[in-house]
UniProtKB/TrEMBL annotation:
Keyword annotations of the record: Amino-acid biosynthesis, Aromatic amino acid biosynthesis, ATP-binding, Cytoplasm, Kinase, Nucleotide-binding, Transferase
SUPFAM superfamilies tied to this protein: EPT/RTPC-like, P-loop containing nucleoside triphosphate hydrolases
InterPro entries associated with the record: Cytidylate_kin (IPR003136), Cytidylate_kinase_dom (IPR011994), Enolpyruvate_Tfrase_dom (IPR001986), Enolpyruvate_Tfrase_sf (IPR036968), EPSP_synthase (IPR006264), EPSP_synthase_CS (IPR023193), P-loop_NTPase (IPR027417), RNA3'P_cycl/enolpyr_Trfase_a/b (IPR013792)
Record-stated family: Belongs to the cytidylate kinase family. Type 1 subfamily. Belongs to the EPSP synthase family.
GO cellular component: cytoplasm
Pathway(s) where this gene product acts: Metabolic intermediate biosynthesis; chorismate biosynthesis; chorismate from D-erythrose 4-phosphate and phosphoenolpyruvate: step 6/7
Reaction catalysed by this enzyme: dCMP + ATP = dCDP + ADP; 3-phosphoshikimate + phosphoenolpyruvate = 5-O-(1-carboxyvinyl)-3-phosphoshikimate + phosphate; CMP + ATP = CDP + ADP
Protein name per the record: Multifunctional fusion protein
């Protein structure tokens, strides 16, 4: 997961491969609530593990529901059988509408029936998201609900006891959010000693989400009767009973980004999306039909779909999106790649989501250069001609879907536009529903290696290159190449195989076939973790010796180039800027006095439990400097266009900030 202020996506030109979707948010949070309220134990597999489910799980724990996570990621909940063991709790629900609405209903009804006082709060945006229609419906039933902030919005207190009035139909508006109806449907079985009737006022939106609710209630033994979409009856005696084990299907809204990716960029091999298929419960799966209408070639399978580019350019569509409100955002970005306008209607609910999505979408599409018109419940996007694409920093409004759908704009070279970086601000907001979204995207996309930015940090031993490279890479969301580790691994492998450090041929063949891989910051030769062994001074000296051999350097060249992958690379070594990535955007030559470097290395070795003598270290590093500088093959020296940074008197943070300042200066973004 990327917790960084911005992520620069390089221009992307293709896509292929397989993505396994995270569990559906809507299904996950409905199942969590049902399982917590039901009789019996429920094991939920492939539950979404993201911010919105985390706040739901924490709230359930605060309400007395015991649950545990298995090693396979499943969550098992011990159902409360409709009775809360605590009479008071304060629950923080972040910005999770799928937690706030049904919990408000459940706690209001249970407090009315059994007594108690429960409070529900969220982030500031949650306190701007209307809940009045649900609160009015619950008050109509006799529930006591206190507005703790602005009336009609969270935070709320749900209090009781108070007599419930279940004889008359409960009326709820259905034209703002279907979640109000869902909240009542999920929770009224708790008090259904008699038939309970819900009547919907206004035209119900997002009906497929209500279908999910009804299907999941059926899995918990409650068969809701309905007359069209206006009247629902929860039969007397309904009880929530655990079905035991449930599997969450993949998130259909999240699938939309990969369907669009396939439609835009998969020309040879498809993008295969696993976790939903033909019989998916979620309405957003119908996004695939909209994508097909724009030109995508889609193959439906039982539990997957495969998407390729069909018609190109895409064609604009006019679509009532009332049934696919979340996924519809992706269509607005696809519209840029079409040859006729796209008009999306029936999206009034966008105004009250994580942000005002109509306003946000229009503002950010305009930053890219698009012509956009908007109304109360519609948006119209004109195709973006190749020369009109602008370099932009996309604001994401703490809205995961803004971040995910705008990432597709990095495919602009496919529209013939000038390749340029696209900045996504606050990319970590995807944690709400898809914490690994960007990592997943990177595993599927293709870029021209020369478009993938590289930041080189070269310099003498112990100057702090590795430390600086790691921290800069973390702040940019980029990968790291510790090229010294490749020479160190060659020296270590030679030592283990009894190969002389003068035998250039054998050393080169060892280097060319090194069984080396990196995982979670650790370095492995075959299956052996050699991270610490590589740092031994003797191995460093051996590395310096083998690194002077041209054939060894040649043997490691391609391996180093292969680290240049989307979204970018920070490479540290001696010749990153001079020999391996001479076209890199920023080359830093990092130095510090020999005395400072010896001091730092001494401290570093002592901390790792190696014995070391500072005078010996100073002598060794001066010897190593001399060998690295004076060898004929790629000697240690600053590239002509390198920035020099002497960090003898700079701490790590100051060095990192200096490099990030240089980096930002070199790639300005408007706004
Ligand atoms: N600016 C700094 N101020 C103080 N200590 C630093 C600074 N930069 C790095 N260090 C410390 O110096 C030690 C050596 O740093 P590091 O391992 O990053 O150097 P290096 O240049 O990558 O070395 P090598 O080339 O041998 O791999 C580490 O313990 C690190 O924490
Ligand atoms: N690009 C590189 C990286 C490293 N070396 C050599 C020089 C060093 O003495 C040795 C170990 O590197 P370190 O881990 O200390 O950075 O490898 C090189 O020649 N070129």
């Amino acid at each position: 997961m990327l917790k960084i202020p911005f992520l620069d996506l390089p221009p992307l030109r293709g896509a292929a491969g397989t993505v396994r979707l995270p569990g559906s948010k809507s299904i996950s949070n409905r199942l969590l609530l049902l399982a917590a309220l039901a009789e019996g134990e429920t094991r939920i597999e492939q539950l979404l593990d993201a911010d919105d489910t985390a706040v739901m799980l924490e709230a359930l724990r605060a309400l007395g529901c015991a649950w545990h996570r298995g090693s396979d990621g499943s969550v098992t909940l011990r159902g409360l059988g409709g009775h809360l063991p605590v009479s008071a709790a304060d629950c923080f629900l972040g910005n999770a509408g799928t937690a706030m609405r049904p919990l408000a209903a459940a706690l209001a009804l249970l407090a009315a029936r059994d007594g108690g006082r429960y409070t529900l709060r969220g982030v500031p945006r949650m306190h701007e998201r209307p809940i009045r229609d649900l609160v009015d419906a619950l008050r109509g039933l006799g529930c006591q609900i206190e507005d703790l902030g602005q009336p009609g919005y969270p935070p709320l207190a749900l209090c009781g006891p108070s007599p419930l009035r279940l004889a008359e139909p409960v009326r709820v508006r259905g034209d703002v959010s279907s979640q109000f109806l869902t909240a009542l449907l999920l929770t009224l079985p708790l008090v259904a000693q008699q038939d309970v009737v819900i009547e919907v006022e206004g035209e119900l939106i997002s009906k497929p989400y209500v279908e999910i609710t009804l299907a999941l209630l059926a899995r918990f033994g409650v068969q809701v009767q309905r007359e069209g979409w206006q009247r629902f009856i929860i039969p007397a005696g309904s009880r929530l009973r655990s079905p035991g084990r449930l599997v969450v299907e993949g998130d259909a809204s999240a699938a939309s980004y990969f369907i669009a990716l396939g439609a835009l960029a998969a020309s040879a091999e498809p993008v295969r999306i696993e976790g939903i298929g033909r019989d998916a419960l979620q309405g957003d799966v119908r996004f695939a039909d909209a994508a097909a209408a724009m030109g995508a070639e889609i193959r439906w399978l039982d539990h997957a779909l495969e998407v390729k580019r069909g018609r190109w350019p895409l064609q604009g569509i006019e679509l009532d999106c009332v049934a696919i409100p979340d996924a519809a955002m992706t269509l607005a970005v696809m519209a840029l790649f079409a040859d006729s306008p796209t008009r999306l209607t029936g999206i009034a609910s966008w105004r009250v989501k994580e942000t005002d999505r109509i306003a946000a979408m229009a503002a950010e599409l305009r930053k890219l250069g698009a012509h956009v018109a908007e109304g109360l419940d519609w948006i119209e996007v004109q195709p973006l001609p190749a020369p009109a694409w602008q370099r932009a920093a996309i604001h994401t409004y703490d809205d995961h879907r803004m971040a995910m759908c705008f990432s597709l704009a990095a495919l602009h070279p496919l529209a013939g536009a000038q390749p340029q970086a696209l900045r996504i601000l606050d990319p970590g907001c995807v944690a709400k529903t898809f914490p690994d979204y960007f990592e997943t995207l990177f595993s599927l996309v293709q870029a021209d290696p020369h478009d993938v930015p590289v930041l080189c940090i070269d310099g003498p031993t112990a100057s702090g290159k590795g430390t600086l490279a790691d921290q800069v890479a973390q702040r940019l969301g980029y990968a790291v190449l510790d090229s010294g580790a490749l020479y160190r691994a060659t020296a270590l492998a030679a030592q283990c195989a009894g190969v002389s450090l003068q035998d250039e041929e054998r050393l080169a063949s060892l280097a060319a076939t090194l069984p080396l891989h990196f995982d979670g910051g650790r370095c492995f030769l075959d299956d052996e973790d050699v991270t610490d062994a590589l740092r031994a001074e003797a191995v460093g000296q051996g590395a310096s010796t083998v690194a002077a051999l041209p054939k060894v350097r040649q043997a490691l060249h391609q391996l180093q180039l292969s680290f240049r992958r989307v979204p970018g690379l920070v490479a540290d070594g001696r010749d990153m800027g001079t020999a391996i990535f001479p076209d890199s955007e920023l080359k830093v030559f990092l130095t510090a006095s020999a005395a400072k470097r010896a001091e730092r290395r001494h401290k570093q070795l002592m901390e790792k439990g190696f014995s070391a003598n500072i005078t010996g270290l100073l002598r060794d590093l001066e010897e190593r400097d001399a060998r690295d500088k004076n060898r004929s093959a790629s000697p240690l020296k600053p590239a002509q266009d390198a920035r020099l940074l002497d960090n003898s008197d700079l701490d790590i943070e100051a060095s990192v900030n200096q490099v990030l300042t240089w980096w930002s200066e070199g790639r300005p973004f408007p706004g």
